[in-house]
Here is the input.
Amino acid sequence: MKLAQGFEGQTKYESNHRRIQRFFAEFVIDRYLLARLIFSLLPHKPPYKLSLDRTNWKFGKTDINILMLSVCHKGVAMPLLWKMLPKRGNSNAEERKELLNEYIKLFGVTTISSFLGDREFIGEPWFEELIRHKVPFFIRIKENMKVKIPRKGTKRLLGCLII
Here is the structure.
């Protein structure tokens, strides 16, 4: 609405507003083009700390669930790539791997210094993917999580899982 107010000329505000609505209704965002643009505008050079997060909410009766991959810099996460999840709840390893591999295809694994994630982003297939790409990762874990450590048995960890 504010954009429509800024148009010059004799056209009525309502016409400008409707024109803007039609534009965005038909406009398709090229995710990769947008990611490359944001990447080129980042305030520092690679390698970057990547962060994965998920957000979900309801818009009327529609569930919105987005898995977001961001670059972290000075306490701010700048979104680069996302995946709309066609369900409620957490992502699975395949959805996470797809997003990570999109990033690697666009920018290369050498642009990643580390990967940060919350405790919902766990699981052997997911960790194996990060290890396969040699990406160091820091995952927040539950206080009572037990992990098998080679030659040391099962141990209870506190804080972060650091690989």
User: Anything to note?
Assistant: The mean pLDDT is 88. The longest helix spans residues 93-107.
